[in-house]
Amino acid sequence: MPPFVPPTFQPLFAATAPVGDANGLVIAGIVLAVAAVAAFLLLRKPAARLPKADDKRLQPQSEAPPSDRHDRSGAKATLRIGADGKARKLTADELIQEAAENALAEAAAAAEAVGVRKSHKDGERAFLQTGLDKTRSEGFIARLGKLFAAKQIDEAVLAEVEEVLYRADLGVKATQALLATIREASSRKELSDAAHVWQALRQRSLETLLAAGTEPMKLRVAGGPAVLMVVGVNGSGKTTTIGKLAHRYAGEGRKVLVAAGDTFRAAAVDQLEVWCNRAGVPIHRGKENQDPASVCFAAIERGKAEGFDLVIVDTAGRLHTNAGLMAELQKCARVADKAMPGAPHEVLLVLDATMGQNAVKQAEQFRESVPVTAIALTKLDGTAKGGVVLAIAETLKIPVQLVGVGEKMQDLRDFDAELFVETLFAGH
Q: Tell me: the pLDDT tens digits for 53-85?
C-alpha cells in the first residue's frame, strides 16, 4: 500500500516521485518527512489543563501589554502585517499552519535545486559521451573490454594489456601505474574477476586526475585586470579557445579585452577578431610584425586604464622545438609582469587531443619556458586517444581545466574528473 500523503502535499510529491535515481529518492524522502511533520502539527491541538487552586492565572493580575497578551488557547499570539497594512494577531493554530507552509516551501526549493543540478550534470555527461565515443568504441577501453571478456586474466593477458595501453598513447608513467593497479588486484585474488579489475582501473584513473589538481583558474585580481596568457602550437585550436573563453567570461558580466599577440601572421589577427566580434568583446591590435611583447604590455596598460576585469593574451602559435620562438614567449611573460605585477596570473596551454603522446611532449617543452598552470584539451571528439588526459595528469601533474568538442561557443566545457572517469568506463 503506498504511503498516505495529505492532499496539500500531493502535487509536490507527484512531481518528485517518478524520479528513479538517487536524487529522486532523496527528494521524495524529504517531501514525505516534511508532509508527515506538517500533518502532525496541523492536527495537534493544545491539551486542555484544569486550573489548580494555586494557579497564578486565578490570581488578580495587571493587564499585560498588547505584545504579550495570550489568546484563548493559552499560546502567545504574534503580530503580522496584512496586505492592507494593518497588524493582526496570529493564533497558535495559525502559527503552526505558517510553519508547515514554510517547511513545505523550503522542501520545494531544495527539490528544485537538486533537479537543476541533475539536469546540468546530465548535459555535461552527454557532452563527454560525444567526446569519448571513439575512445570507448575504438580506443583502449574497447580493446581492454575484448581482452577481459574473452580470456582468463593472467600474465599473458597482462602483456597484451600493456601493449594496448602503449598503443593508446597513455605513455610510460600512466601505463605502468595502471598495470601496477591490475597486479595489485591480482595479489588480492581479484584478477580473475573482470568487474574488480575495471573498478580498480576506474579508481586509479580518478586518483591520477584528482592528484593533478582540480582548482579552477584564478582570474579575479584586486586592483587591476587578471591576465590570462594562452599558448600552444599552430593548429591546436588556440584561437578558437580564446574566442570561446571571451564569450564565456563576458557572459558572466566581466569586462574582457583580448590582446592579439600573434603579430607575425595577419591572418591570425583577423581570425581572432572574427571570434571577438562573435563574443562581443573588444580586441587590442598591434601593427603588423610589431614585437608581440609590446602588444601584450600595451593591452594590459589599456586594461588598467579602461577598467577591464580580464585581459586574454593571445601568443604566436609556435613549434615547441623552436628555441627562438620559445624565448620570445618567455619575454612576453616577463613584460606582462612589468605591466601588472604577478601577471600572467594563469597560463593556459591549448593541446590537440588527436596528437596523443606528442601533445604530452609539447606540454613538457612549453612548461620549461613558461609556468603553465592549466590545460585546455581540444578536438576530443575527433580521436580515439582520449586516454591522453590520463597521460597528461600522470606525467605533468598539470590539471586539465577545459575540454573542447565542436566549433560552437558552448562547445568548451569545464573538465570534471569524476564525470570523465564515469563516462570513460561506463558499462564496465
A: 444 444 444 444 444 444 444 444 577 666 666
Give the pairing of strands 78-81 and 87-90.
Answer: antiparallel
Q: Which residue has the cell 614585437?
A: 291
DSSP calls for 115-150:
HHHHHHHHHHHHHHHHHTHHHHHTSHHHHHHHHHHH
Which H/E stretch holds residue 211? helix 194-211
Q: Coil, strand or helix: which one is 400?
A: strand
| Residue 330 vs residue 122, higher pLDDT | 330
Class of residue 331 by CB neighbours under 10 A (exposed 0-12, middle 13-18, buried 19+): middle
Report the alpha-carbon distance of residue 5 to residue 173 in Å, rounded: 57
> Which residues are CB-neighbours of 241 under 8 A, at least 6 positions away?
230, 348, 350, 376, 378, 402, 404, 412
By DSSP bridging, strand 78-81 and strand 226-231 are unpaired
- Name the pTM for this structure: 0.70
Q: What is the pLDDT of residue 20?
A: 44
- Residues 262 and 268 sit within 8 Å (Cβ to Cβ): yes
Annotate 300-313 with three-state secondary structure: HHHHHHCCCCEEEE
Distance in angstroms (rounded) separating the CA atoms of residues 373 and 345? 9
> Which residues, in sequence order, are bridge partners of residue 412?
404
Q: With contact defined as beta carbons under 8 Å apart, do 260 and 296 qualify?
A: no
Short-list 206, 209, 183, CA closest to 196: 183
Give the span between the Cα atoms of 128 and 405, in whole angstroms: 8
DSSP summary character for residue 210: H
